[in-house]
Specification:
Blueprint: H1 2-19, H2 27-34, H3 38-44, H4 48-73, H5 77-90, H6 99-105, H7 112-138, H8 148-169, H9 178-185
Length: 187
């Protein structure tokens, strides 16, 4: 029962963080969503920061697993980057903001542990994208141009930024699959 309750709390709180923001949700919201008393929530997560840290740590594990899957299933740099874009977009299904993008928007209001994890998550994504692009440059699938790190930053920035614009305008994702080709082919 405790594992199921913990998982239900993490899932519900992640959804609240991605729709309302970290600062805007409370344990009272979780009592309504999960259907348990505040004392039970505090049993699993004594502080809201403990809950936030658990959410981001679980999310990092899921994304690392997705990176491993992408590397197993896709050999070429364009295929890997397109799979990353699909993964990124799928994470926003249901009208959710990207978790760490939502946290980054509140960075100055986050407790130190969540600030560090948010930074770590973005760093992890940029390192993975940079490595994929460096491999593409080495295989001559990608022109060196502005450099792998810069291309990784541009791709991630476009995805994160478009998710916030889509959130605000409710127009749907206007970035098409051509974005990977534009980033890869840029000199």
């Amino acid at each position: 029962m405790a594992v199921g309750t913990r998982d239900a709390l993490v899932q519900a709180a992640e959804s609240l963080m991605r729709t309302k923001g970290y600062a805007a949700f409370s344990y009272a919201d979780l009592t309504e969503t999960v259907g348990i008393r505040k004392a039970s929530i505090h049993h699993h997560f004594p502080t809201k920061e403990d809950l936030g840290v658990a959410i981001v740590e679980d999310y990092i594990v899921r994304v690392r697993s997705d990176f491993d899957r992408i590397e197993r299933e896709h050999q070429g740099v364009v295929d890997r980057l397109e799979a990353f874009v699909k993964m990124f977009r799928a994470s926003g299904d249901g009208g959710l903001l990207p978790l760490c993008g939502a946290l980054a928007a509140e960075m100055s209001a986050l407790p130190p542990g969540l600030q560090q994890l948010t930074h770590r998550f973005f760093d992890m994504q940029l390192k993975w994208l940079t490595t994929v692009l460096e491999q593409g440059v080495a295989r001559e699938e990608v022109p060196g141009g502005s450099g792998a790190r810069q291309k990784a930053f541009v791709l991630l920035s476009m995805l994160e930024g478009s998710s916030f614009i889509n959130w605000a305008t409710k127009e749907g994702d206007l970035l098409n699959d051509r974005i990977v080709r534009l980033i890869v082919e840029e000199a």
